[in-house]
């Protein structure tokens, strides 16, 4: 099966997910967190660094559970970050078009 390349938005979402999990882990050991979640430390390292931009749902659910994060909180944080970026994007118009008033 051929896997399509990730979009820039998917890559950025993976980086935000990794940063969120890294912050939630705090000073807890990566090894201990990974083992409690049932994933390899290398998998957790790749997710936290954004190298695995689209990890499997059960993997994220297990890590979030170990870190005391609800999946709702994870999803809300990712969506909030996307909305913040969308609000900061400059508005533009197509030349020759008028904005509706």
Describe the structure.
The protein contains 5 helices and no strands. It is mainly alpha-helical and 101 residues long. Helix 2 packs across helix 4. It starts with 7 loop residues before the first helix and ends in a 13-residue tail after the last helix.
C-alpha-based Rg, rounded: 17 Å
Beta-strand portion reads under 5%
Shape: globular
Total helical elements: 5
- As residue ranges, the low-confidence spans are none
Structural class: mainly alpha
> Helical residue percent?
55-70%
- The overall pLDDT average reads 86
How are the SSEs ordered, and which strands pair?
Elements: H1 8-25, H2 30-37, H3 41-49, H4 57-67, H5 71-88
Helix pairs in contact: 1-3, 1-5, 2-3, 2-4
Question: Quick recap of the structure?
Answer:
It is built from five helices and no strands.
Looking at this protein, list some descriptive labels.
single chain, 101 residues, mainly alpha, 5 helices, 63% helix
């Amino acid at each position: 099966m051929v896997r399509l390349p990730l979009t820039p938005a998917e890559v950025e979402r993976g980086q935000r997910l990794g940063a969120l999990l890294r912050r939630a882990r705090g000073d807890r050991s990566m090894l201990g967190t990974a083992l409690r979640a049932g994933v390899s430390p290398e998998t957790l390292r790749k997710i936290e660094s954004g190298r695995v931009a689209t990890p499997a749902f059960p993997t994220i659910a297990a890590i979030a559970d170990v870190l005391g994060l609800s999946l709702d909180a994870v999803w809300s944080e990712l969506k909030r970050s996307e909305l913040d970026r969308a609000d900061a994007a400059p508005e533009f118009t197509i030349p020759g078009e008028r904005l509706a008033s």
